[in-house]
Write a structure and sequence with these properties.
226 residues, alpha/beta, Glycerol-3-phosphate (1)-acyltransferase, seven-stranded mixed beta sheet, 7 strands
């Protein structure tokens, strides 16, 4: 196994291509700048080395791409397996992303992600498990399981502003999108399903609090401009 094929020391799963991953990050970093005014905060808080489980909210298909491009290090995301159908599948695999079955526990995906973490990589998870309003009202156990298996630090991250406003509201040209990384923290996940459930709730609360803080800032900004 060589660095060109991913694997140990690259922060990516086996079979991925590091230079393609880095190219993809560069594209994602610039892709939405013409459409949005990005306000990025807290990226200096993201640990540059060591295992990290990143948890983020997810309301549109734009958030994963923004996060992927703006993070200051390589990242491997658990991506719904439907996205790997068709022409996008080989590209996603080569840049190191991992397909996951959202409808049931996916041991293959979690095992691959655990290997990345044990190699010192960063794995991104959307705890809601599917797109919603991005309010993080529920969460699945995958992130907590990964933390328990790897001892990774947890990095919460919130993205707000990508959703279109209600139909009766005029959409502004290049709306502001906030991408905010919170403070990373350690999480002790106890044994058993109850331990996973308790840790998952702590993860959900941490992310929900960060999203609420970003929303409060956005509301304050709008009121000041009125």
């Amino acid at each position: 196994m060589t660095a060109a094929d991913g694997g140990r020391g690259t922060g990516l799963p086996d079979g991925s291509v590091p230079w393609l991953h880095d190219l993809g990050r560069g594209i994602a970093r610039q892709l939405y700048r013409p459409a949005y005014r990005l306000r990025v905060e807290g990226m200096d808080r993201v640990p540059r080395t060591g295992p990290v489980v990143l948890i983020a909210n997810h309301s549109t298909m734009i958030e994963p791409q923004l996060i992927f491009g703006l993070l200051p290090r390589r990242s491997v995301f658990l991506v719904k397996d439907e996205m790997f159908e068709g022409a996008a599948g080989p590209w996603l695999r080569r840049i190191g992303q991992v397909p996951v079955n959202r409808g049931a526990p996916d041991r293959t995906a979690l095992t691959t992600a655990t290997g990345v973490l044990r190699d010192g990589g960063l794995v991104g998870v959307f705890p809601e498990g599917t797109r919603g309003a991005g309010d993080v009202s529920s969460a699945h156990h995958g992130a907590a399981w990964l933390v328990r298996m790897s001892g990774a630090v947890v990095q919460p991250l919130a993205v707000r502003g990508t959703l279109r406003p209600p139909e009766d509201t005029r959409r502004r040209l290049r709306p502001v999108v906030d991408v905010v990384a919170g403070e990373p923290f350690a999480l002790d996940v106890e044994r058993g399903r109850s331990g996973l459930a308790e840790a998952t709730e702590r993860l959900r609360t941490a992310l929900a609090d960060l999203v609420a803080s970003v929303d409060a800032t956005r509301t304050s900004d709008r009121e000041e401009k009125q």
